[in-house]
Amino acid sequence: MPVWIWRKFLVVPLVLLSLSLILTACDGNTPKFANADLSKNYNQGEAIDKTTAFSTSDKVIHCVLRLSGDINGAKVKLVWIAVDTADGAKNKTLLEKEFTAFIDLDVYDNTLPAPENGKFATGKYKVELHLNTRLDRTLEFTVQ
Fold it and tell me: Which backbone phi and psi does 117 adopt, to 5 degrees?
């Protein structure tokens, strides 16, 4: 049997398998959001009273992030947006927060405080979660 046939049926699949294993191993170290929860409260690394429906009288809205992988030095950005609210806001950025993750801390509590008048306007909102400058996901919520 000619050598080129052996290469085609033996070497090429081995190279592809090796590349696949390398890429899979690298993916396990890529920083990512393991969890992202909206909640009314936060305590000792946990989102308490998880919800996507908040009250106008809530004083703060929590977005609790749990990171996994090689998170040391990962850049995280949250953009809180009023999508369509009773006070006339349409796709208005309310707050942007950026931070760098550290290896010793994998849970971060990020908050959107109530406006100066103490009450959120009713309507639709969202928070965009960016990881290393790329939009990873968007969490939508309402205030009633």
Answer: -75, -5
Could you give phi then psi for residue 29, rounded to 5 degrees? -100, -10
Residue 138, beta-bridge partner list: 128
Residue 58 is given by DSSP the state: -
First to last CA, the chain: 75
- Residue in this structure with the two tokens 């990171």, named with its chain if needed: 67
Res. 63: pLDDT tops 60: yes
pTM over 0.85: no
For residues 65 and 49, what is the distance between their CA atoms, to the nearest angstrom? 15
Close Cβ partners of 101 (under 8 Å, ≥ 6 residues apart): 31, 67, 71, 72, 73, 74, 75, 76, 108
Distances (CA, A) of 55 to 26, 61, 91, 119, 124: 43, 10, 20, 9, 12
